[in-house]
Amino acid sequence: MGTKTILWILIGFFILINLSWVFNLGDNPTTEIKTSLSNVKSSLTGDVSTESVSIKKADEEETCNYGYSGKYRCNGNGIEAEWLSSDCSSRWFYYFTCNYGCENAECVYESIQDEEGTQEQSTFFKVTYIVDGDTLDVSTGERVRLICIDTPERGEYYYGEASDYLKSLTLNKEVDLVKDVSETDRYGRLLRYIYLKDGTFVNELLVENGYAKADPHSPDTTLCPQIQNVEDKAKNNNLGIWAEEEY
After folding, report:
1. Residue 145: which CATH number?
2. Residue 165 falls within a domain, yes or no?
3. What region does 147 belong to: left with phi over 0, alpha with psi -120 to 50, or beta?
């Protein structure tokens, strides 16, 4: 066998070995790389899909509407209302002030009881103007006539003193207006007993100190006997209007 023949045999044998390595898929590094990338992609795709499905959706009862929830609560002497925000959280804000305190999300009211057992609620208002000794205006714009009493009219003895006394007691102060039976008189004035925040009964005090006389008018007479009782003291001591015999 010649030298050239042996050389060609060796070259052919070398080529066959390399071709066998290239087409062997189990040992081919390129194929291994492609397979690994495919596995990674499949793994990632599977993980993302699983996580997205596992996200919990809000239950229907957990959703909320904007606006008032219709719930109220006490805060000191006042009432707060609940407002629902966009994230379903609560916002409480001032709604109403109670004069006598708050219980079970409702105002507590003091009241007087007439002869028929009717309970009348009482409310505080600021006095803004004094008309005369038995009439005043409050912050609602309404005019109030004190019941069971009467003070001198303009031009009569002790008119100025009675007006000034009522002013010193009530002007720019919050007073409690308590109805008896009637809402208003024929002039549209509220008919009320008036109390200061410390409990002072203004109608009675005007009569007791001689600035007014007892003047009951049915049907608003529940507390008139109480006022008439203190009138005797003023008369006996010639206080205020009782110093003038003609009154």
Report:
1. 2.40.50.90
2. yes
3. beta
